[in-house]
Amino acid sequence: MDVGSQAMEKVLLILTTLLVSCSVFELTEEQQNDIVDYDEYSELVKVKSYEVETKEVEESSEISSAEPGINNKETTRPTTNLPTNKTVPLTKVKTIKKSSALKLKSIKSQARIKKSEVGKVVKKSIKASDLEKEKTEIKHLPLIEDGDGFIGRRPGTDPFNPGEKVVLDLKYFKMKAGKLIISTKPYIEVNGKKSYHFEVSIHSSKIFSMFYKLDNIAHSYVDFLTFRPYSHTVHLKESAQVKEARSFFDWEKLEANYWENRIAKDGKKSSKKLNWNIKDYSQNVISALFYFRAFTFTLGKTIEFYVADNKTNITFKGKLLRKEVINTSIGKIKTIVMKPEFVVDGSFKPVGDIFFWLTDDNKKQIVRIQSKIKIGSIFAEVSELSTGL
Description:
Layout: H1 3-12, H2 29-35, H3 39-44, E1 47-49, E2 56-59, E3 92-95, E4 102-105, E5 110-113, H4 118-125, H5 128-137, E6 150-151, E7 154-155, E8 165-172, E9 175-190, E10 193-204, H6 206-209, E11 215-223, E12 229-237, E13 241-250, E14 255-264, E15 269-277, H7 288-291, E16 302-309, E17 312-328, E18 331-344, E19 347-349, E20 354-359, E21 366-373, E22 376-386
Parallel strand pairs: 2-3
Antiparallel strand pairs: 1-9, 4-5, 6-7, 8-9, 8-22, 9-10, 10-11, 11-12, 12-13, 13-14, 14-15, 16-17, 17-18, 18-19, 18-20, 20-21, 21-22
């Protein structure tokens, strides 16, 4: 199997081997402890619950809190997309009397403005032409990516909401094989920065588990402002193997680190550690499944971005083919169809006929996947859909 095919199968997390086994492989407690020892990874990736440090902004009654560009320039996500619970607001606004002095505190800087200068500063801050100029001057990097709809690295409309969840029913040879679940968890703090927490899991059905059991889950942590992934973790518990893997992308050094431990059904242990140079803003194989949703979709467009995996640097190319209304168990859904392709080291790598159906709206959630593999075809279709907060 070529590198491109391997990468796609990891991205999909769909029945990667499909080997037949009549028994379920379970680890002993000692083996479980042995396989999850990743001290080096834990030193590099510090994860804890995200708690917003509330910053108070006192402003004149001449300033409307709804005006864009006044507070929190680093966070370009529209306030309408932000959840209203305690973990979301990055600023707290309090209106005081007009005669009071104006104090603005933002993430980047803190400044005190004299009462006599308030009107002048406010008018300049909210001038529409200045805001448009500022937006156009912020380049979207890397240049390989289409920056349409982005302000710097942030999309104008954030498609990811904590609590969103898509459940896809998997079929293999028309037999119900299990469920693929794609979800966005509450924000998390990674190495001191607000981050997305993406999760993908796959679980075999009771009937299919008699032949091959799957209980796999993967997580990826991605920086909220830059969309650079910090890491991904994979936990595979299958009939033929149990595997734990971790990655960490060091953006100062532009290098990736990868650790893997595996125990086969016969008890044979194996492990590997990889380190290689990566391109800036590369996605990992889990975050890639989410990242293409940040782009503006237009028929005929090809979405491109870098993916780093298995000591290889890959260019993902998603061709937007057509719009289609599909019938599902939860009703009719307007979709746009994308066909992914891969370029590895400058060479196109065929991965067969694989197609994604994504909701034709600002969310672009995956509602259908169709893929032909070496020994059959896999079909996944939505049975549960939630857009979150």
